[in-house]
Amino acid sequence: MDDAIAVRDLVVDRGGRRVLDSISCRVPRGAVTGLLGPSGSGKTTFMRAVVGVQLVSGGTVTVLGQPAGTPALRHRVGYLTQAPSVYADLTVRENARYFAALYGRGRVEADRAISDVGLAEAAGQLVGTLSGGQRSRASLACALVGEPELVILDEPTVGQDPVLRADLWARFHAMAAAGTTLLVSSHVMDEAARCDRLLLIRQGRLIADDSPAAIRAAAGVDDLDEAFLRLIRAGEAASTSTDEPAARETA
Amino acid sequence: MNPRILAATTGRILRQLRHDRRTIALLVVVPAVLLTLVYFMYADQPTPPGQPTTFDRIALVMLGIFPFVIMFLVTSIAMLRERTSGTLERLLTTPLAKLDLLFGYGIAFGLAAAVQAAVAAAVAYWIFDLDTAGSIGLVLGIAVLDAVLGVALGLLCSAFARTEFQAVQFLPVVVVPQLLLCGLFVARDQMAGWLQALSDAFPLSYAIEALQEVGAHAEPTGRMWRDVAVVLGAVVLALVLAAATLRRRSG
Questions:
Q1: What is the pLDDT of residue A1?
Q2: Which of A144, A150, B6, B209 has its CA 20 to 30 A from that of A81?
Q3: At what angle do helices A224-241 and A212-219 cross, to 10 degrees?
Q4: Which CATH number describes the domain made up of A1-76+189-251?
Q5: Residue B251 domain-assigned?
Q6: Rg value, chain B, Cα
Q7: Is the Cβ of B48 closer than 8 Å to some Cβ of chain A?
Q8: Cβ contacts (< 8 Å) between B105 and chain A: which residues?
Q9: Each residue of A14-58: pLDDT tens digit?
Q10: Which pLDDT belongs to residue B232?
Q11: B19 part of contact set with chain A, CB < 8 Å
Q12: Structural domains of chain B, count
């Protein structure tokens, strides 16, 4: 019961293609877990499966002790989609207040969520007039406003200014310290070092599931990018030597 | 359903509308302008003694048709925008129930239609001397019900459209046949049997008949109440079907 998310043998097929191939992993509570992988590796599909909006072909996903997608979980899980999904014809504040109301929260929480993502000065602005980075922070505010126990964030820091990115990561760690579980995806390896735990997926398969320090130690290099490269090479060498033609055709 | 979430959703939709001043202006002004056109089209037409004037006959029906057609279109596009912007998927990961969203649209656009119908009726009654045996209050009530019927059908149809182009095409498919067969052009009992059967199957026919009953009788008739009940039933059926087309999980 210490795990916020427990995934067993998760398989997802989409449009006749295997997008996730028997993934098993656990995400501990009260920590920031990074979901790393190149574009198209299956990160978003994995997150959708955790939120419970993805049709899955096999395996189980257990979230906070209940099957993913259980109605009671909708109060406890916050989800930030990759493309900002907020109302462009409402102001930042109106968006945050609406999502706050859905979770039974009020104006105070809405205003706090807006200032937490550094948008306090743009609160009265229509989302449609914001820059791309501001828009995705508006969307982030709406994911955090319900103060969920588990937060699933799909590439929350893309396109953000470096200072803001550092602020957001500090914010994520503060939330984790207060007991919130965060699963954060990124395709930027320099963000991997900021996570407590890492899940690396590539071509729908889980390549690594460990702390950044353990991954560095296992690969024998200090640079995480290099460490991942070695893990991938090692994995490929293993799969060619064990002769698994089925695994290769998804490439 | 949850009253707090329903109220927040209704408020959010009305707020979106409020930010769109041009749409509000079009909603309020266009029916009045069209009624003016109709008035002058029939200004010189002779009226047989003892019959309502052609303008009275047509204007009364128009008061029900405007809100129906306009709210059908507005709703189809609004719902499609929820789908394509990702906000629908996000909403379905929150505690919001599907019917909260659908009734939110029904109530918000029903209120907008009430304003629209009030302006159109004011123009028809006070500027162009529209004469109905029954009360203006009943005419307005039925006009709002017609708007809600348009909203419900729009919500349902938007499930079958992937793009705005497709959504707009549902106007000729769903709305125009109902207009043609509702009794405005040819009295329903003078149509061929199979056309009458079609007309009987269309909810708009009952909405129009209810208005004509108010036009012809000083007191509400049993037939009018039956028509109102049929339209209400069609609204509930369309909303339930629309809820069934909203899937929380997708591939």
A1: 52
A2: B6
A3: 60
A4: 3.40.50.300
A5: no
A6: 19
A7: no
A8: none
A9: 888 999 999 999 999 999 999 998 888 899 999 999 999 999 999
A10: 96
A11: yes
A12: 1
